[in-house]
Design brief:
Helix content is 31%, strand content 21%.
Length: 121
């Protein structure tokens, strides 16, 4: 079975990354030339994902703007959590969106590089 859907967890406050996350949501922190969210999206596209859900909360408008300003060529849905739902709540929301279809869940905290491609594939 080929998994075509994925979720990226991007709603947290990034408290361990303070003071960087006061004005920048953790998924948009750059490591080298790319931010963490960008690395996650590119990896998922490379393994064949065509539908992506991203939950947001802290500084959600920054993530919204980033997605609007970048065309990744796949369906990306942003879900703003009014109250932080934590990991389980965010994933539960994605199960509603994806219904009975399997999906990957990625935490953008990891620096996703080409080395992960074979493992996910």
């Amino acid at each position: 079975m080929t998994i075509k859907k994925a979720m990226i967890l991007a709603a947290g406050f990034g408290k361990r990354m303070l003071p960087l996350t006061i004005k920048t949501p953790k998924p948009l922190i750059k490591v080298g030339p790319k931010n963490l969210l960008e690395r996650s999206i590119e990896l998922l596209i490379k393994i064949g994902i065509d539908e992506l859900a991203i939950n947001t909360h802290h500084l959600s408008q920054e993530i919204d703007n980033f997605i609007k300003n970048n065309n990744y060529g796949i369906s990306i849905t942003l879900t703003k959590e009014k109250e932080l739902l934590d990991t389980g709540g965010g994933i539960l929301n994605a199960t509603k969106k994806f219904e009975n279809n399997p999906f990957f869940v990625l935490n953008p905290d990891t620096i996703w590089s080409k080395n992960y491609y074979e493992e996910l594939k």
